[in-house]
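[retry 2/3] Aldose 1-epimerase: previous attempt timed out, resubmitting with same input.
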Amino acid sequence: MHRYAAALRDEDGMSVVVLTDAGTGSEARLLPDAGNNLFAFASGGRDAIRTPVPLRTLRDEAGSRYGTPVLSPPNRIRDGRFAFRGRDYRLPLNEPPDHHLHGELCRRAWEIVGFGADEAEGAWATSRFRYADHPDILAYFPHALTFTVTYRLRDGRLRMESVIRNEGTDEAPFAYGLHPYFAVPEDGAAGAALNVPAREQWPITNLSFATGRPSATAFSRAVAGEGGAPLAEIPPLGCAMLTLDPQADPVCRIALGDAGYSIAYRLDRAFRFVLLFRPDWDDAFSIEPYTYVTDAFNLPYEHELTGAQGLPAGEERRLETDIWIEDRQT
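[retry 2/3] Aldose 1-epimerase: success.
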């Protein structure tokens, strides 16, 4: 019997990719038909990502509320408008009446490029989304970006490799993020602690819009400290925006109290910011890595501070994250 396996299954009329690692009892489940959503990942019988709703609900109604939505742009754009390199952009107000939220990647079907497994590479699956295949997107965002994502399960760790390439002729505004909903079981919620390598905290509204420049705060110091900060400091529907310390170990952890384990999440250093968010519709907590601060192109601050940037024609960005489960004594 081979240790690693990758399979394509039909579940409720949709294609589901299942990656398994028998050596660690790990399994990842992807739904390309709904935003290439990583909707489940467990290792050793413990959930890191868990989705409690049916797959059809995930596809048709809740694309950004469960699993691991892929975001471009991440979070909100006020009034759906911004300017970049002298061009005005008007994105659809998909969070009526005022804002554009999270982009299109998490709501549409992706193309399965391939999947497979072997001892050297583990179990893997690659999917792709091309703006050039969607004239309605190009009508308001005229840049032929291609997003290619490979999930790779090996030695109990799940790596997400993202490649974003500008196949158009003009520089495109670039903003990318992820929205994993990490499972926080009831037996681990009490006394749960959060550790994030933060440097500063942004003052933000309840919709994550920045209201000033970032600074070191009691919370940013606590969450970056050895013991972390109590997860309960983020109330239901609460959020916090942090700038990460580029010199620190880029691993975030949720230590789940009496459950005896932690969820670890390693971030690519190209993700300079994280948004912390606690939903009120599920027993979960989100550590959302972003390449920019929410609505950065509309902020009156220097781009070096906010992460606002472009992706020149013919160039690409590569970003990686890893998720795994750690025993508390690790």
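[retry 2/3] Aldose 1-epimerase: The chain has five helices and 27 strands.
[retry 2/3] clearing retry counter.
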